[in-house]
Amino acid sequence: MIVTLTANPSLDRTVELPGALARGEVQRAVAVHQESGGKGVNVSRALVASGLETLAVLPGADSDPVLSGLHDGGVPFAALPIGQALRSNVTLTEPDGVTTKINEPGPELSDDQQDALIGLLLERSRGASWVVLAGSLPPGVPADFYATIARRLRSNSDGTATPSIAIDSSGAPLAAALVGDASGKPDLLKPNAEELAELAAAAGFTNVSTADELEADPAKAAEAAAAVVASGVGAVLATLGSKGAILVTADGAWLATHPPIRAVSTVGAGDSALAGYLLAATQGGSAQDCLRQAVAHGAAAASLPGSTVPAVHQTTPDAVTITALQKDSQ
Ligand SMILES: Nc1ncnc2c1ncn2[C@@H]1O[C@H](COP(=O)(O)OP(=O)(O)OP(=O)(O)O)[C@@H](O)[C@H]1O
Ligand SMILES: O=P(O)(O)OC[C@@]1(O)O[C@H](CO)[C@@H](O)[C@@H]1O
């Protein structure tokens, strides 16, 4: 069982434009898609699509459209009512694949609600193989929320094995994943290129590069990710958009690439990549198998509209090329 936590879920509305986005103009949409979203929710949706056992833990009332969508989509969830509506995030897609996203801050969670959400997660993740802590934190929630949860999961004394912990976030909550002792640090981090640049700087990597440089140079990205692993994180799966992804562990570093696809909407591609990784990991796959399935899932997600997530049969892992990389700078 893979449990996901989305502290700041969203109703994702994707608006397809007939041409390029024209600021200040009235434009007519060609189509609109609406899906329950938020990073952990997307991971759970992708796992359900491939028949894996998962539970999405999130705040929200039963009547909230995000929860109704999960219910209708057959995605198991456990929700904490918070007396406020969840947010809506809007995505504008242009025919050439350019995607513009506007994310709301989301409803504030009080201290009591934060404690209750952690309690719900701890209770429902007993016996889980993985817990995924994903997405931004809503207003009121401290940046070290995920580290606090990781510590609580690991200090659980109920006799069940501690799950592996994956974190996919950005900004301050992501940087906080590197602070403190080992018990608060994740087994797996899933940054994109921009987040990897921030993380590497936070990990003290002096040869810091921009996101564009890391996307263009996987060897440099592997060096940056190796600095993050050296700071106490189990593994870094860094997704590099159309350039594929790298995986860096204490044992090695690899690049995975997929032949070009026609990108329709990249929203949720990173979440699908993480789901692909976890799918292979729970089937006992090697590091390279996990990376291969991550990139196969990411490429399939990018070729689907809105934040649609692929099932494993829609992915093409055999088309993915894996190359070993040197992870340490010379
Ligand atoms: N234009 C593209 N062409 C081919 N594959 C893509 C493209 N964009 C994304 N992907 C695939 O999806 C994976 C994740 O993409 P990306 O690095 O953009 O994630 P992300 O920024 O975390 O996405 P999100 O936050 O929207 O889920 C990549 O590793 C790659 O496999
Ligand atoms: O605002 P956050 O929490 O950083 O990201 C939220 C979000 O952009 O992430 C998913 C795509 O990865 C979408 O479903 C959702 O709208």
From TrEMBL:
<keyword id="KW-0418">Kinase</keyword>
<comment type="similarity">
    <text>Belongs to the carbohydrate kinase PfkB family.</text>
</comment>
<dbReference type="InterPro" id="IPR017583">
    <property type="entry name" value="Tagatose/fructose_Pkinase"/>
</dbReference>
<dbReference type="GO" id="GO:0005829">
    <property type="term" value="C:cytosol"/>
</dbReference>
<dbReference type="InterPro" id="IPR029056">
    <property type="entry name" value="Ribokinase-like"/>
</dbReference>
<dbReference type="InterPro" id="IPR002173">
    <property type="entry name" value="Carboh/pur_kinase_PfkB_CS"/>
</dbReference>
<protein>
    <submittedName>
        <fullName>1-phosphofructokinase</fullName>
        <ecNumber>2.7.1.56</ecNumber>
    </submittedName>
</protein>
<keyword id="KW-0547">Nucleotide-binding</keyword>
<dbReference type="GO" id="GO:0008662">
    <property type="term" value="F:1-phosphofructokinase activity"/>
</dbReference>
<dbReference type="InterPro" id="IPR011611">
    <property type="entry name" value="PfkB_dom"/>
</dbReference>
<dbReference type="GO" id="GO:0005524">
    <property type="term" value="F:ATP binding"/>
</dbReference>
<keyword id="KW-0808">Transferase</keyword>
<keyword id="KW-0067">ATP-binding</keyword>
<feature type="domain" description="Carbohydrate kinase PfkB">
    <location>
        <begin position="21"/>
        <end position="310"/>
    </location>
</feature>
<dbReference type="Pfam" id="PF00294">
    <property type="entry name" value="PfkB"/>
</dbReference>
